[in-house]
Amino acid sequence: MQEHKNQPLNDFIEYPHDEMLKRAEEFLAVSQRRHSIRSFSDRPVPREIIETCIKAAGTAPSGANHQPWHFVAIHSSDVKKQIREAAEKLERSFYEGRAGEEWLDALKPLGTDASKPYLEHAPWLIAVFSQKKGGISADDKNTNYYVHESVGLATGFLIQALHRAGLATLTHTPKPMSFLTEICGRDKDNERPYMLLIAGYPGTDATIPEHALVKKSLDEIATFI
């Protein structure tokens, strides 16, 4: 490696093989209880929980460690209403034909439609933005690298953090998502909406589509060579 400032790795914990397997199996079991739902309770969730989960998302690896992401945590009823109105307007055109028959057929087993009441009902929405330029310091204006991959990793960390904290989530990606830039007051020249996460407790009528419970086997998703 080239010379660079560094420090010893002093917080890595090595576990015996049996404990490693146990921890891996426990994490698998926890992950298997993570479900996307579309009915959320309006029960409040303390801001400090959301803050801690976003901090966890911020530990994700990124290209050149530029951390090209920004999370807008939305609790305001007024802002949530604006987002719902804008999203449902797009979703209506989507379900009325813009998506195409193949896409709509793929969605039928999930039971989705243009109505998105959870965008107002859930206690928190988290808008994830990617950044074209930035760097380690907040005022850096360098080119960011592997932006899509980096923000995808951070979003995955965030979903798992919210799940581990005891909250349910849903990913929402209306197209186009430019309305989020305006509503959240972000820089349209440097940032692009990446995803909208809904977070909170499940509603008493929350369900899981049977279609969503079908997961590919290890042989179908992995090859060992």
What kind of sheet is the major sheet? 4 strands, antiparallel
**Helical proportion?**
25-40%
Shape: globular
Q: Could you say which structural class the secondary elements and strand pairing correspond to?
A: alpha+beta
Task: Give start-end ranges of low-pLDDT stretches.
Answer: none
What order do the strands of the largest sheet run in, or round the barrel if closed? 1-2-6-5
User: What distance separates the N and C termini?
Assistant: 28 Å
- Total number of helical segments? 8
List the helices and strands in order: HHEHHHEEEHEHEH
Q: What percentage of amino acids are in beta strands?
A: 5-15%
- Cα radius of gyration in angstroms: 20 Å
InterPro entries: Nitroreductase, Nitroreductase-like, Nitroreductase/BluB
Pfam families: Nitroreductase (PF00881)
Protein name: Nitroreductase family protein
Keywords: Flavoprotein, FMN, Oxidoreductase
Key terms:
225 residues; alpha+beta; four-stranded antiparallel sheet; globular; Nitroreductase family protein; Nitroreductase-like; 8 helices; two-stranded antiparallel ribbon; FMN; 15% strand; 40% helix
Task: Describe, in plain words, how this protein is organized in 3D.
- The structure is a single chain.
- With 225 residues, this protein is of the alpha+beta class.
- Helices cover 40% and strands 15% of the residues.
- The chain is built from 8 helices and 6 strands.
- A 4-stranded antiparallel sheet has the order 1-2-6-5.
- Strand 3 (133-134) and strand 4 (142-143) form a beta hairpin.
- Helix 2 (47-57) packs antiparallel against helix 6 (147-165).
- The longest helix is centred in the middle third of the chain and has 22 residues, at 77-98.
- The protein is globular and about 55 Å long.
- Keywords: Flavoprotein, FMN, Oxidoreductase.
